Amino acid sequence: MSLTLTLAVADLDRTEFFYRDILGLQLETFEPAPEFPRVLLLLCGDTAILFRRQQALEASHPALFEHLDRHPKGVGMTLELELPDLEAARRAIDRQQLHLLYELDDDEFKRREIWLHDPDGYLLILT
């Protein structure tokens, strides 16, 4: 089974900078078809995360996405991402002066976690 998540974002360039340059993740950029706007793709094993402009989603599916900005994005959802270099991401987060919710050492699972929100408010746990 595979899973694809579509996340609405306000600014694809800002999202790309955050996930690629701060977190160090590999993103692909593509246009699904000539008449469709650019999409960012983050592959995580059998899971794909698509980042699409909120305006494009609202235009394509007005009944489903109307007034998407009335509520915080990702309410009740947490994205847990295993980074290739957590320390490098932590230094980049500090350089950008991003707000961390907290850091913790999870002794039970023997890993370190960094909790923060991405530029659109999605809650991330970085390991």
What brief labels describe this structure?
127 residues; alpha/beta; 2,3-Dihydroxybiphenyl 1,2-Dioxygenase, domain 1; 4-stranded mixed beta sheet; 8 strands; 25% helix; VOC domain-containing protein; Glyas_Bleomycin-R_OHBP_Dase
Describe it for me?
This protein has 127 residues and is an alpha/beta fold. It has one domain (3-126): 2,3-Dihydroxybiphenyl 1,2-Dioxygenase, domain 1, CATH 3.10.180. The protein is 25% helix and 36% strand. It contains four helices and eight strands, in the order βαβββααβαβββ. A four-stranded mixed sheet has the order 1-4-3-2. A four-stranded mixed sheet has the order 5-8-7-6, covered by helices on one side. The chain is globular and about 45 Å long. It starts with a strand and ends with a strand. The mean pLDDT is 89.
CATH architecture, by name, is Roll
Q: Fill in the CATH topology.
A: 2,3-Dihydroxybiphenyl 1,2-Dioxygenase, domain 1
Query: End-to-end span in angstroms?
Result: 24 Å
- Helix and strand string, N-terminal first? EHEEEHHEHEEE
Mean pLDDT: 89
Oligomer description: single chain
Number of helices: 4
Which spans have pLDDT < 50 for at least 5 consecutive residues?
A: none
Largest sheet: 4 strands, mixed
User: What value does the Rg take, in angstroms?
Assistant: 15 Å
CATH class label: Alpha Beta
Number of E strands: 8
What percent of residues adopt helix (DSSP H or I)?
Answer: 25-40%
Class from helix and strand fractions: alpha/beta
